[in-house]
C-alpha cells in the first residue's frame, strides 16, 4: 500500500475558492480512483491560501487485473465447417485473444461465441499521471483567469506541482501553463520565512511543511483560530462577534494563524456600534468585542455601552513581528474610523426630510422613476395595507411617517460608503433629530428580513412598512417586465416574496393578498402606462409567484411536499391560498402534526373513499351543508342516516372562521370512519349508484358534502398514502 500526494501550488487564492473547490476535488478523486480500480484507505483534501492538496493513504501500488467475459456473434456466423470466419477473427482481435480461445455456449437465443478477456493492471503512478491534469481542468469556480501566453485557466496562476507516490515523483507536465509546469517534490514554505522545501515522501507532507511555517490542515487552522478567539474573548470578559463566515474567511487567508490583540482610542466609541462592527468585521476582517450582558440599543448613536475598545485579528506572519502588525492594523483601522466619524457628523448636519427630497435626483431603475417616486409608491401601499390590518391609530401613524422617511439615508454619506448600513443609519439619524422612537425603529426594521435566517421586524409599524417595501419591489419590477429565472434574480424578488410571507406568519396577521394585488396592480397600470401593464394578468402572475414562494419556503422548513400541495398546490384555488397565507401555514402545521401522530391515515381513509364516488355527482365545491340537498325521506338504510349526522356535525365547524376549526374538523372526520364503513360495507351498506335517479343523487350529495367539508382543511387527493 502506498501514500499519494498531490499539491497544486498557486499564487494567493481568493478566500472563498477553497470552500468551493475542495468538495469538487474530493468528489473527482474518489470517483476516478474507484473507476480506475485503485482502492484506498483515507482521502483528505485540504488547502492553504497558496495551495490545494490531496493526500490518499493505503492506495494500491497497481491496478488489479480486470477479467471480463464478452459475448460475440452467433456461432453460425462465427464458424463455418469448424473454421473461424472473418466475424470470429475480428471479434477475437478486438478482445485480444486467439481465435482458438473462443468458446461456444448455449443461450436463450441459441449458441453464441464468448471470449474471456484479461486487461492487465497498470501501475498506479501511470494511471495518476493521466488523472491529475483532468482533475485540474474539471475544477469550477468564480473569476477564473488565464495568465501569460498559456491556455490554462484557474482561479489564480499555477506556480508548482507536487505529485508523489510514496518517495517517487509521478512524472507529468502541465504544458498549457505559462511557463509549463513539471511535477516534482519541491513545495513552498511560508512566504515570509521559508522558500522552497523538498518533500522526502508523501507521508511526511504535513510535518515537513509545519517545519517550514505552514499549517496545511484547513480544519486544524480553523480550530486554532476559533479556540484562540474564544480564549482571548474569555480573558477580556467579552463576547466576540465572530460569525462562521468570518471564521471561514480567516481560515482561508492565513497559512500560520497568529492571534493579535489591538485597541482603538476611546473617542471612537462615540460612533454607532454597527459602524464600528462593520468596519472591523466586513472591511478589515477583525473581530469586534462586545460587553457581555448588555442588550444593544439598535437606535443608539454611540457604542460606549456596547463595545470594548479592544479588538482581535488573525495575522499570517512571524510571532516576532506581532507588535509591528498590531500597530499597522490599528493605524489602518483609525483611518477608516476617522472617515466614518466625518460621515456621521456631515449626515447629522443635514435634516432627514431634506435628504428625502434629494432622493428625486437618484434613479431607482430604468422606467420606474426616482427613489422619491418609489417612496411615494411605498407610502400608497402602506395606506392600502393599513386599511386591511386592524391596527391602533397611533401604530398606523407611526407606519405612515416611517414610510414617508424610510429611504432618506440612501443619499447619506455613511450609507454611500457602507451600503450594508441602510436603514440602520436612517433610524438612528431620525431618533437623533427628535422623531418618535417607534418611527425610527420602523425605518430600521423595514429592511428586515435581509435574508434567510435573519431577524424579522419586531414592531407592528416596522412590519407594515416592510410588507409595503417588498410589495412595491415586486409590483414595479414585474410591471417593468423582468422576472427571476433560474439562478438569476438580480432584484432579489424571491427573497422579497419570502419576506412577505415570513412577516405575515410571524405577526399572525390575516391579510387578503389577492385584494391587495388587484388594487395595487390597477394603480401600477395607471402609474406606468408606458409599460402597458395588464393589471388582471399582473395580479394573477404575482399571485402564482407568491403561491410558489409559500410552497418553497415551507418545503425548506421541512414540510413534506405532498402536504404543501394539499393546502397550497396548483390545484388549490389561488384565492384560498392568498386570502390568508397564515391560514395555509396553519393547515400545513396541522397536517404535519397528524402525520407525525399517525392520525392522518384515518382522516385520509374517510375522505378519499368518499371523494372517489362523489366525483360522479355534480355538487358544487362550495357547498358544505347538507341542508336542502339531502332528503332523509329517501333513505333506505340506517347507514345513510348515520352519514347525515356526521355531515350535520361537520357543517358548523367547516363554516366557522379561524384556524382552531381545523383540528376539530380533522377529529370529527377521523371519528366518522365507522359511519362511512357502514355506508359502504356490511348489512347496512347501500349501492350509491342506485337505479332510482333521486336516490342516487341523494347518496352522491351525502358523499359530495363530506368531500367539500374535508376540502376546507386540504385537498386530500394530493396527499400520498
Through-space gap between termini: 51 Å
State the secondary-structure class: alpha+beta
Number of helices: 27
- Given the C-alpha coordinates, what overall shape results? flat
Q: Note poorly predicted spans.
A: none
Radius of gyration: 36 Å
Keywords for this entry:
49% helix, 721 residues, four-stranded antiparallel sheet, alpha+beta, 18 strands
What does this structure look like?
By secondary structure, this protein is of the alpha+beta class. The chain is built from 27 helices and 18 strands. It has a 5-stranded antiparallel beta sheet, with helices on one face. A 4-stranded antiparallel beta sheet has the order 15-17-18-16, with helices on both faces. β7 (103-107) and β8 (110-119) form a beta hairpin. The longest helix has 27 residues, at 322-348. The model has no long low-confidence stretch (mean pLDDT 93).
In short:
With 721 residues, the protein is of the alpha+beta class. 49% of the residues lie in helices and 13% in strands.
Question: Which secondary structure elements does this structure contain, and how are they paired or packed?
Answer:
Elements: E1 2-10, H1 17-35, E2 43-48, E3 51-59, E4 66-74, H2 75-78, E5 79-80, E6 83-84, H3 86-95, E7 103-107, E8 110-119, H4 124-138, E9 158-165, E10 168-169, E11 173-174, E12 181-182, E13 186-188, E14 196-198, H5 205-211, H6 218-235, E15 239-240, H7 244-251, E16 258-263, H8 273-283, E17 287-290, E18 307-315, H9 322-348, H10 352-358, H11 371-388, H12 393-405, H13 413-417, H14 424-433, H15 437-445, H16 460-480, H17 493-507, H18 513-527, H19 535-556, H20 561-568, H21 574-578, H22 581-597, H23 600-614, H24 638-655, H25 660-671, H26 673-680, H27 693-711
Antiparallel strand pairs: 1-3, 1-9, 2-3, 4-8, 5-6, 7-8, 9-10, 11-12, 13-14, 15-17, 16-18, 17-18
